[in-house]
Amino acid sequence: MDKTEVYETKEEKHAYKMKVLLIGLRGEVRFGMKLTNKAPSCYSQVKKLFGYKGNKQKVLDQFELNFYKNGGRII
């Protein structure tokens, strides 16, 4: 049987969103893919949320550093 996770608190939902953005941004940098055709790219969302500047690789580097420095929690 598959394991289903339920995110109830605001912090859990935010942490999940940050993980998805990180995975999506890695995909955009490494493979040139997007998570969805209709929503803004992970690159543009991360830049808007955190005010990072630079190309996709530089934004990914900044985001990963911040993500792992905070133990996977960016709030």
Strand and helix map with partners:
Elements: H1 10-31, H2 42-50, H3 56-69
Walk me through the structure.
- With 75 residues, the chain is mostly helical.
- The protein has a domain at 10-31 and 42-69.
- Helices cover 60% and strands 0% of the residues.
- It has three helices and no strands.
- Helix 1 (10-31) crosses helix 2 (42-50) and helix 1 (10-31) packs antiparallel against helix 3.
- It is globular and about 40 Å long.
- The N and C termini lie far apart (33 Å).
- The mean pLDDT is 89.
Poorly predicted tracts of residues: none
E-strand count: 0
Largest beta-sheet details: none
Mean pLDDT: 89
Distance between the termini: 33 Å
Give the % helix: 55-70%
| Cα-atom radius of gyration | 13 Å
Number of helices: 3
Structural class: mainly alpha
- Determine the strand fraction and express it as a percent band: under 5%
> Judging from the principal axes of the Cα atoms, what is the shape?
globular
Q: Strand-and-helix sequence, N→C? A: HHH
